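PROTEIN ENTRY
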Amino acid sequence: MATGNESSTVAGSGLVLTVLASGQFLMTLDSSVMNVSMATVASDLGTTITGIQTAITLYTLVMATLMITGGKVGTIIGRRRAFGLGLVIYGAGSLTTSLAPNLPVLLIGWSLLEGIGAALIMPAIVALVASNFAAERRPAAYGLVAAAGAMAVAAGPLIGGAVTTFASWRYVFAGEVVIVVGILLVLRRISDVPPSKVHLDLAGSALSVVSLGMVVFGVLRSSEWGWLQPKPGGPDVLGLSPVVWLVLVGLLVLYGFLRWESHLAATGGEPLIDPGLLRNRQLSGGLTMFFAQFTIQAGVFFTVPLFLSVVLELNALQTGLRLIPLSVALLLAAAGIPKLWPAASPRTVVRFGLTSMIVGILVLVAGMDPGANAGVVAVPMLLMGLGLGALASQLGAVTVSAVPDSQSAEVGGLQNTATNLGASLGTALIGSVLIATLSTSIVAGIQADPDVPPSVQEQATTELASGVPFLSDTQLEAAMKEASVPDSTAQEILAINSDARLEALQVAYAVTALLAIAALFFTGRIPSTPVGTPDRTSTPDPEDRRSS
C-alpha cells in the first residue's frame, strides 16, 4: 500500500508533468493552428499567403536560432526561472498576436516575442523533467511530454478550424494567454535545477544566430528573388540573386561558429555547445532524423491546407476535419508502437515511418488532377500520420539516451534547434518551390494561349514573372472584375490559374517526397536495437560500421 508521502509524490509529479506537457503543447500549437487558418488570417490582416508563410517561417526561425542560447541562459539563471521568464515573454507575444491589426504587428507578437519565449521554455523543459523525476521514470515522462507536442499537431487543425470558423483565430492566441497565467500560478511546485556559474558565449551566440538566420532567410526569399539568376525587377549582387550569397555566407559563418566552439573547448573556455556532442554517432543520427521529420512535416502542413482552403475553397473547420486521419494515425502510432512492439528496432521503425510518409506524399502527387476533391487527401493523411507517429515514438528516446543525464539540457537545446530549423526550412523551401512553379506555369500558360490578348500577355510577362499569389478562383475573379478584364479573357485566365495551381502543388509534393527519400540514406546512425538494452553496444551492427 502506498504511504501518504508516496501518494503526495505521485500527485505532485502528476502536476509537474501536466505543467511541463502544457508548455510543450503551447509551443507546438501555434504553427498547426496557423497552417490551417492561413487563408482566413491573410484576409483578416490584409496580406497574402506569402505574408503568412513569412510569419510561420520567422517564428520557427527565431526559435531555431535562439534555442541553444536559450538553453545556456537557463543554465545561468536556473531552469525554472528561465521557464517562467519564457512564459511571460510568450504570453506577451500571444496577447499582441490576438490584437494584431496587420502583418507587422503579427510578426512582432508571434514570430518575435513568442519565438524568444519558446527558446527559453523548450530547453528548460528537458532539464526540469530530469530534476523532477527519478531516473527510472524519466523515459515515460519524456515520452508523455513529447506526446503533448504530438497532440498539438493533431488537435491544432481542429482547434484552429473550429475557432476560426465559428469565432475568430484571435481567440486561440487569447486562450494561450490564459494557459500561460495558469502555468505561472503553479510554477513554484516544480523543483528547480540550480543555476551554474558559467558564462554565456556571446560570440558563439551571435555566430549561430547570424549563420542560421542567413541561410533560412535566403531560402525564404528565393521565390521572389530567384535561386541563382535574379528575377526580373529583383535585386542582384554581382550578377547573381542575393539568395545564393546569403546561403553561401551563412554556411561559412556556420563553419566559423563550429571552429570557434572547438577552439573554446580546446583552450578551457566555455563553449555554447560541447563540440563532442556533434561527434556522438547516436545523437547526430537522432538529430538528423528530427531535422528531416520536421522539414517534411512542415512542407506537407503548408501545402495540403492550401489545396483544401484555396483550391477547393473549404473553410478552416472543413480543412481541419480533412486532416483528422493524420491526427488520429499520428497519435495511435506514437503511443501504440512502444506499447505493442517494445522490443522493436528503432532503425526499422524509423525507416518504416519514412517509407509510409513517402508513399502518402506520392499518392497526393498522383491525386492532383482537375477533378480532385477533398476525399483525395484521406489516405495520404492516414499514411503521413502513421509515418510521423512512428518517428515520434523513437527519436526522443534515441537522442536523450545518447548522453549522460548531466548533458540532457544541451541535448534538448540541440534537438529543439534541429526540429525548429527543419520546420523553418521546410516551410520556406516548399513554399518557394510552390510559388516559383506557379509563377512559371501561369506565365507560360498565358503566353501560349492565343485567346489571351497580346496586351494581357505582355502584362503577364512583366508583372507575373516576379511571383504571383496563390489565389482561389473567387479571389481571382474578383481581381479581374475590378481590373475590367473581359469575361472571355477572364475565363481563359481562370483555367490557366487552375491548372497552374495543381501543377505547383504536384511539384511541391514531389520535392517533399525527395526530401523524405534522402532521409532514408541517413538512418544507418539510428540504433538497431532498442534504446536502453544493456548489451546494446556489445555486438557491433554491420550497418553501423558501413555508415560510420
Notes: Residues 1-11, 460-467, 535-540 have pLDDT under 50 and may be disordered.
